[in-house]
Amino acid sequence: MKKNYMARTVTEILIRLLFFILMPAAFSSGFLGIKLLFTSIGKGETLNIGSLWILIGLSVFTIVFGRFFCGFVCAFGTLGDAVYAASGFVQRKILKRKKQLSIPEKPTVVLQKIKYLILFVIAVLCVFDIYKSLSGYSPWDVFSRLMVFRLPGDAYWAGSIILLLILIGMVFKKRFFCQFLCPMGALFSLLPVLPVSKIQRNERNCIKGCNACRKNCPVHIKAGENILRDGECIACEKCIGVCPKKNLTQPEKKLIKNELFLLVIKAALVFVMGICLGFCRFF
User: Fold this and answer.
1) 159 belongs to a structural domain
2) What gap in Å lies between CA 245 and CA 97, rounded to an integer?
3) Residue 249 and residue 256: Cα distance in Å, rounded?
């Protein structure tokens, strides 16, 4: 069991590091599709499908495999986990705190709604062709420039401040940006997921008052408990490994029983898609 856990952890780290290096612009590329879509609607122009292929590809992948992109591919998600882990290390080892400072669950559930408002506001700004004049306020534009080793100029001072505030938020909450602020996460959470890729829970077999899955879930959900919040799942599968009754399953794992092989297959598919659609750096 311990060997399996270590193998899973190492594989996950390698996959996420690979995508962080090779596909740091995956988020921005998909987000560009959202902006172009609503800008075209606002101008009444014929939609150029060619400019939306990355958004379409990521959306189809999400429908088939769940939010694997959010859990393993997105550079913002990986950055957030690294900052939160470093914060935990400092608090435990240097500040001698037994419990890491974090935002409690109840406020978290409320704050998760903000990303839907952000997606709506961005859509409205694009429809009225206002968003393009606000590029200097975009934290992901600043992040994208930093990832290609370009310092943001004076025009990006507001975006730089917002990015700094996001990094501070990442110190106190796992997946801070993903849960509260990400417009792509808002879109992906609204997409349906094929039943074969959904995490399923046999509620009748659960230990009363256990909640191990929810406590270890970065987004504080319990599979199948609230259909309106199931879309928050980022497909990290943390819940499956901690269930004392082995009560959480995915139908896809009955088709491909080797968990690590399945993980690598999904990563390979995203990698090939990144090369074909042009958001993979160096390829």
Assistant:
1) yes
2) 31
3) 13
Closest CA to 191 of 140, 225, 234: 234
- Kindly state the helix (H) or strand (E) to which residue 248 belongs, with its residue range: strand 248-249
pLDDT in tens, 215-271: 889 999 988 788 889 999 999 988 888 888 888 888 888 778 788 899 999 999 999
Q: Is residue 203 part of a domain?
A: no
Measure Cα distances from 178 to 42, 67, 184 in Å: 27, 11, 9
Task: Please tell me the distance from the alpha carbon of residue 238 to that of residue 215, in angstroms, as a whole number.
Answer: 10
State how many domains the chain has: 1
Cβ-based neighbour number of residue 272 at 10 Å: 12
Asked if the structure places residue 15 within a domain, the reply is: yes
**What is the pTM (predicted TM-score) of this model?**
0.91
* Residue spans of alpha helices (H) in the chain: 2-22, 26-43, 53-65, 68, 75-89, 105-111, 114-127, 139-147, 157-172, 176-180, 183-190, 212-215, 238-242, 252-255, 259-277
Contact predicate 158/95, CB 8 Å: no
pLDDT tens across 130-166, in order?
Answer: 998 888 898 988 998 888 888 888 899 999 999 999 9
Q: Using CA atoms, how far apart are residues 25 and 120, in angstroms rounded to an integer?
A: 22
The domain of 62 spans 2-194+257-277
> If we measure between CA atoms, which residue out of 20, 8, 38, 2 comes closest to residue 187?
38
Written as six digits, the tokens of 8 are 């899973």
Are 258 and 250 in contact by the 8 Å Cβ rule? The answer is no
pLDDT per position as a tens digit, 175-189: 999 999 999 999 999
